[in-house]
# Entry
Amino acid sequence: MPANMIPFTMPSQSEEQMRRSARTLFDQMKARRSCRFFSDQSISKELIESIIAIAHTAPSGANRKPWRFVAVNDPAIKHEIRLAAEAEERESYGHRFPQAWLDALEPIGTNAEKPFLEIVPWLIIMFRIDWEMIDGERVHNYYPAESTGIAAGMFITACHQVGLATLTHTPNPMKFLREILGRPANEKPFLLIPVGYPAKDCVVPDIPKKPLVDALQWNAG
Ligand code: IYR
# Structure
């Protein structure tokens, strides 16, 4: 074994056990919904940190972990983010979105008003880092969008598994997030993820889901 390698194994399980695990996980994950009506019930920093630690285990190009999570529960900052997001969304819904996009959003029932951005206890803002300065040298990261997307998927999965609701929110353009949060120029806003509990009267759109047969092609025996 090369000196820089360590053994890696996984516990052996029967096919039946594995199918049961897959079924359980599927049933849990298919119950996840994007939430736009949050309660103001607080969530501890410790719980949020433990979920971010899970996302931070994500694989990444050359193991660079080219992301940053900014976790906000300060009401003044949440307010500022809400105002800036709504200003952009008003422009988008007002004249920037083409009609086809507005039509696609119609069943989801969204509009430019985003009160949840300050009701929800936490806003997690993910930035992707395309390059960084290491020892005075500009070093490029590899696959930063893919890597950060994988970490985001693990983050929302972890939230759902511990019983917290999320929304993957992308006000567009998002550069106000870098300004409000004081992040440097090499950190590009990637996703704004409100995390909390659904409000008591929370509703979600009753929309059809694309069946798996439309998303999976087998080339297999
Ligand atoms: N960012 C806008 C519009 C929007 C865009 C997509 I693509 C969605 O799936 C949902 C909304 C908003 O949040 O209202």
Summary: Residues 75-96 form the longest helix (22 residues).
